[in-house]
Amino acid sequence: MLIGIKNCEKYKDNYAVEVEYIDLFSTKIYPDGKGGQLGDRGHINNIPILEAKEDKIIIAEKIEKGEYEYYIDTNRRKDIAMQHTAEHLFSGIALKDYNLHNVGFRMGEEVSTIDLDSDSISEETVKELSDKVNEAILKGAKVLGTTIMRYEADTISGLRKKISPKITDEYIRLIKIEDYDLCACAGFHVNDIKDIRVFKILSHERIKGKYTRFTFIAGDRAIKDYENKSEIIKSLNHKFSCRDNEIIEKIENFKKEHEDLKKSYNLLLHNYALSLKEDILKNAIEINSHKVVVFHGEKELVNELKKVLAEDKLTFIGLYEDSALIAGEDINCSLLIKEILNADSSVKGGGGAKQGNIKGITDENIIIESFKKIV
After folding, report:
1. How many CB atoms lie within 10 A of CB 317?
2. What is the fold of 2-72?
3. Which of the listed residues 90, 128, 142, 197 has the most CB atoms within 10 Å of its CB?
């Protein structure tokens, strides 16, 4: 297929081109966002299409005016058709069987969402909705498209949504799934709902205080998701040496063991900090009647020592990795940090009067000299 490039302009880090279709029956590049769905991708003269807008196409490289071969990714269109038709089917069943209206639809590159006009949809209803959609897919039903004149739109009965007065196109395209849905839509759809293959609700949540948002995937996306989760389960089976139905119990036991070990570790850390306290206080530096403790160690031990020494009237400086913790009520820690930053421009930091942090490696002597200046 041939496409004409009428002009090419710089667009952010890429290029925007205005196009015209040379062949009478050329497939037009579908714009992103139209009808709530994703737009086309592909290539123009082997240059990737990054985004499709109503009035321009965003491509990765500069291109001269002229006529070029172009390609549209049909696999992407197939995926979009599955997601979009699944939205029609889900929305149609939600309205027909539960009087729930679709008030918002967004298709994404990985997942899509539908907003229904209730914030009190039960878990039972969610499961029923999912089951009914998949039962319908299994039975199958033709997806039929027809075009009517705009003035005829108001005479059509059974539309799931009224056609907005803002739509002033001369022709309106209707999509019908027999027994399930009738809606105006210009997007991509499968020929039969059997082609969707499978529908999966990933999650649902209340939004805006009055709606429920469903996140879903369909078709190849859903199958791939099932395959990925199956591999995860196999991996967990191997790691825990258990069967599928034992995984949850094994993880709960693992979490409990981890929490018990964490408690034991924290107790040991606390006791170790207490055992160090006496020697640390003996080695405290006294500057103008102010005591300073400088300690080098691991981050966890530094934080624990800060707690252990909190009741002592001193300034604690804990050095670990490429950072420093400064804490105490004997001086204004914020002033000390500012003085250190003035003395050493290679480090950054900040904090309040009682505690602060320095990011970067600074010499201990710089800290002590800075301390002297503020006391």
Report:
1. 26
2. Elongation Factor Tu (Ef-tu); domain 3 (2.40.30)
3. 90
